Each structure stands twice: as C-alpha cells, then as structure tokens.
Amino acid sequence: MAGPLPSVPTNLIVQTGNGETYLSWSPVVGSTAYNIYRSENAVAYTQVAASSTFYYYDSNANVGTQYFYKIQSASSAGVSNFTDPYTITPVDWGQASLGQLRMAAQQRADQDNSNFVPTEEWNSYINNSYTELYDLLVAVYGDEYFVRNDYTFTTDGRSPGLYPLPDDFYKMMGVDLTVNATQNGYLTLKKFTFAQRNQYLYGGTSVPFYGFQNVSYRIMGSNVDLIPTPGGNQTIRLWYVPKPTVLLADSDIIDGISGWWEYIVIDAAIKAMQKEESDVTVLLMQKEVIKKRIEAMASNRDQGMAEGVTDVRGGFSGAWGTFGNGPSGGF
User: Fold this and answer.
1) Residues 6+ apart with CB under 8 A from 190
2) Residue 133: helix, strand or coil by DSSP?
3) Which letter does DSSP use for residue 127 in this model?
4) Got the DSSP string for 163-209?
5) Considering the entire predicted model, what is its pTM?
6) Cα 202–203–206 angle (5° rounding)?
7) Which domains does the chain have, with CATH numbers?
8) Span 192-208, mean pLDDT?
9) What is the pLDDT of residues 306-323, one digit of tens each?
10) pLDDT tens per residue across span 109-137
11) First CA to last CA across the chain, in angstroms?
C-alpha cells in the first residue's frame, strides 16, 4: 500500500521584486516534491515547475502581468489538493502594484481577513497615501524626481499669451524658449508675479523675435501665461512634474518611488485603523521615521555644491550672433 496522500501545503507566501516572483510555503511531512501552477485568469492553470524544496523563484514572469499561483505537494502515494490561489503582479525595483500595496496595508492593520474596510475603500486610501508620498518626494527632492521635458508648443501671437498646459500637468519646474533646437539654443524663462503683469507691456502689441530676453511666464489655472505676448512661431518647452498615477486595477503599477512604498502601506493602514477607532500611535511613529529617512536621503543624494546664484540669462552665441540682455521691453 502506497500510504496516505500528502497534506496540502500551508502558509503559501508570494513576493515580488526585480521582475521576479518568489514563492515559499511550509514543508509537508512525507512530501518529495511540490508542483507549482500559474494562471493569468484564475481559470486555466499551467504547471511551471516541480520543486524539491519549499520555495521557488519564478523568473519567467512578465512585469505588469497579474498572475495566480497555487501549489500541491507530491509523494509516492500521489498528490494533494491545491492551496487556495495567491495573486500577485511582478514588479521591478522601485515599483509596487495596487494589489501588493493593499495586501501589505491590510496585514499591517491586521485586517487581512476582515471586510470592515471594503476593497474600493482600501484602494482610495492607497491612492491618497501615494499622492501624499508623491508630494513629499517632489518637495524634498525637487527637480531630481518625475520631471518631464517632452512637451512643447508653438506660439501663434495670441494676446494675452495664454496657452493650455498638458493634461497630466501637476507642478511646473521650468520653462524654456527655443532659439535653435538643432544647436541646443534654449533660454530659461523667469517666473513673474501678478504685480509684474504689466512690466514689459507697451502699446498692446506682440513682441518680435529679437529682444526675447525679457519674456517671463506664470501659471494661471490650467494655462501658462507669457509676457510680453510673444509673436508667432516661437517654440516653448515645458519642464514639469506629471500627475501621480491613479491606481484602479490590482495589476496597476506605480514607479519611481525608489523603495519608499512602505510609506504608502503604513499611511493606508493608519486610515483604515482610524476608521475602526483603533490606536495608531505606533504606526504614526513609523510613518514619521520613514519621512525623516526620505528627507535625510534627499540631502545626501548629491554631495556636490551648487552655486548660490544661478545665471539663467547668460549671453547666447549662435547662428544669429551673440545676444546679451536684449533690448528692454521686448522679446
């Protein structure tokens, strides 16, 4: 007689990082192997490995694809039933998926087997916590995080010089005027205040190409405002921080957070525990420690000493000759 079938493996844990998934479970007495099955729809499963150990690295998983894993133990008597499926989305370093964050936050709040906070509410907590972390990283690291410079537009001589910002605009980092892109000819535009709105205006006419040194910008609602009003066919390049990603599906991934996703987990757990009126003192302290670490890492990220004064109006030498400060009142 072959003996009884082996037991179902317990304590299945699936983790992800560096584009791989790592499965581990408790060993089963009498088992000689463990069969690992994987699916992308929780219906059709395919065996991806048979492991003689009680762990397995799945290095053939695709980043951003949601997978469902289940395993069974095997012996000379046969195979056990399967474990309950475990779902995860493989991510690279510095990334995290919504499903991964929610599960970690539920565990941190000791609510992983509770329906007190519904899934959609957990997702809302996580998105709010991610936005908070995003704001912190942008504020602390400044122009070292999330900056895009692939948005340009051409002026058409309109007056006032209001042009729409990109749909994903979140925070302006800088504005350039293109003098000659093929020769790296760009000028950094200064930001002007409301009190300076008439500083360079005269006669209500748009300014020509020359004299562009005095052009300035400011943000007005969903537009960028340029004064003095540029003439047509001038190319403007924006450097800006895009809006943070909104996580909707469990496989949605956030990127660029450099391993700081623990901040999201703790903050979301705090929100859930506050709903059930639990004590969150320890979690608040842990959150503050992470915040201090983010600030400390930012200050040590680059030890180079920047100049105290930055010249954004240096003379330009190119196909049109050399330009200094430009004539007053003109672009």
Assistant:
1) 216, 217, 312, 313
2) helix
3) H
4) EEPPTTEEEEEEEEEEEEGGGTEEEEEEE--GGGTTTT--TT--B-S
5) 0.74
6) 80
7) 10-88 (2.60.40.10), 96-141+256-298 (no CATH), 146-242 (no CATH)
8) 64
9) 556 555 555 444 433 344
10) 999 888 899 999 999 999 999 999 999 98
11) 94
